[in-house]
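pasting for ref
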Amino acid sequence: MSGFDPRGAAHYLALFQAELKVRGYRTGKRITNDLITRWPLRKAEETRNNSKIGKSSSSELSFLHWDDIARANWPRHPLEILRQVLSYASFYFFKGKFLKVARLCPGVALCGAYPLLFGCLALTCSLTTALILLEMMHRLDLEAGYQFIALGIGLLTLFSAWKLAEKIGLIWLTRSILFTHRLGQAKEKDLRKRISKLADELIKIEKDNPAQRILIIGHSSGSFVLAMLAAQLKRNEKAKAILARIELLTLGQNLTNLSIYPEAKPFREDLKLLADEPRLPWRDVTSEQDLLCFAGVNPFTSCGITLPKGQSYPKMEIISLKSPAKNHPNKNILLNQFKIHFDYLRNHCSSVDLPGLLTNSVNKSIQ
């Protein structure tokens, strides 16, 4: 389950194909119904012999779609984004939410403030540029018509800031924050309906073609979609037969984002259900180098859900995404956040070894 990524299944398929190729695996023919897109995984040499296809497949990569719902709630026009950002800023800064998030994870708090800070800086630069030009024209006693040139250059500065924001991934981050804000306020109904459909579809697939092991992976914002889906499966009577084979893995999770919303009661109910025995095995992997996730923050305790003493759930791991060989200085870590946030999925992240988990046919627990 991907995060808020409008590039959809094609982007992740390309990413995984590159990572799996190093392991000697290829993806087979795509199977899709617009809810779940599936690709069988096979050894590269097996795909050369069509007679073996279907018999030797040990694993299957599946992409659970909720990306179309994210796109449907994706503000496109800069003025609409500005309007929503201002509404979010009012909630985030003037209702104490920034300080609450900062106490849990300073890096995430800074990321939440980043769009507004960048917008204020861009607006300040634009106004300053226009005012300086106007002052220069006034001193040179130029005709009034030149004032429009100053205005045009000021607007051009804003446009340049927009293009820069797109290039560095800030627009993507802003839309992700705004969608999470909408979900936290319980305004997003379509996602709940999609979760129910995905649960039914998974049950159907498992009935027709049972698997030894079902590993549900949620990356970034996909972590709260994973929690919603896992809870829906636990409450679905038809899913009882497959619950014992389900394991959960969250990578770079931001589940705690929803803890600051009083209206996010359905999400808290989902977490309470997941905390009830029998629990699904759940491994949570985060990194302090990844400022887009809540590194080491337990989603249950941050949402005020008490777990039995002595028990840690999920099993939480904090790993390093900083390559010792490259020895990146901290300033490069800050400038490469959007790349680092995807490093959990790559071959060089041996602490997770996601390509290995995808190709491992042994029924071995992630815990």
